[in-house]
Amino acid sequence: MTKKNIKKKFIPHNRPTLGKQEEKVAVEVIRSGWIAQGNAVENFENDICQYLGLPPGSAVAVSSGTAALYMTLAIYNAKEKNIAIPYYCCSSLRNAVTLAGGNPILVDSKMDSPNINMETIVPSMDIAIIPHLFGIPQKISKGLSKTFIIEDCAQSLGAYVDDVPIGLQGDVGIFSFYATKLITSGGQGGMIVSRDSAFIEELINYRTFNQLDVQKHLFNFQMTDLQAAIGSAQLRQFTKFMKRREEIYLRYQDANLPLLNNESGIQPVRFRAILQTPKQAEIITALAKNNITAAIPMQQSELVGSKDNYPNASYWIHNTVSLPIYPSLRNEDVKRIIKVVRKHL
Ligand SMILES: *Cc1c(COP(=O)(O)O)cnc(C)c1O
């Protein structure tokens, strides 16, 4: 075989980091004979509390980030309330709001960031869901003190704003542990954190859906011990994961790739490496030809509503490319990615 015919190793856009530690804890749970929600779930909740500097008992594990949003909205009586959510975001937010009977009010991105423009959230909006996209957190504006704030931290566990961990700036923080997030609890999972102990109690009651004598429709949103044990194992390695993500990010930055800028006063996590470039299609095609998958972070087809009303989001939809960045990406992979991107900037 000539050298030309050797196809270069495939580099996926994303990949969970799973190894011996996850295997070990999964086997332990299986051997214990208890795999549904139990001690491992409680331990994972308290691990997250400890990580965020919250007292034990301030977190509730659920089956997904979407479930976390839905349960929060359901408990805060979102029905018929106006709920601000970003236009530029995954459908999970819209779905949770709609399922909870709320009235979603779509808000545009900022001019200098794909994150939601909080200045356009007005007091008539009762609740706002504020995601910190791509690991780049934003400070919650003081002007929103009358609005109930749900911080969506699905992409930004470990990020800080003014030395406050994200998830604690607003009234409630939610996290996702889906396979390709910063850490995963066995493919799916979510968490809700809050300092409001009455709210935590209501969440726990909701989650105990089949043991309560109530005339309410409650769904099963529980996490399993098998998932939670994997989540805790991932959290124990999180510092190492973040360090490797940062190294890769710095390699991209040192190669002068046009990455999204950070705002001041924040400490991001490198969930995504997003290029800001008008050559979106060209770069994605060139990478694909080299057996590398890059992605459009948010596509027009995923969003509802006329794009004309959301000029900033519309710009971000067409001028961003998400490059591979995850702990198992090797330096030689990063080099290959940089070489292709630089040729097409
Ligand atoms: C992934 C994600 C969600 C939904 O989490 P799931 O666990 O997939 O339901 C919500 N918001 C944001 C910003 C996300 O990235």
How is this structure best described in words?
The chain is of the alpha/beta class and 345 residues long. It folds into two domains: 3-10 and 238-344, Aspartate Aminotransferase, domain 1 (Alpha-Beta Complex), CATH 3.90.1150; 20-236, Aspartate Aminotransferase, domain 2 (3-Layer(aba) Sandwich), CATH 3.40.640.10. The protein is built from ten helices and twelve strands. The strands form three sheets. The chain has a seven-stranded mixed beta sheet with strand order 1-9-8-5-4-2-3, sandwiched between helices. The chain has a three-stranded antiparallel beta sheet with strand order 7-6-10, with no helix packed on it. α1 (20-32) runs antiparallel to α6 (225-236). Residues 64-66, 89-90, 92, 131, 152, 154-155, 176, 178, 190 line the site of pyridoxal-5'-phosphate. Pyridoxal-5'-phosphate is lined by residues 64-66, 89-90, 92, 131, 152, 154-155, 176, 178, 190.
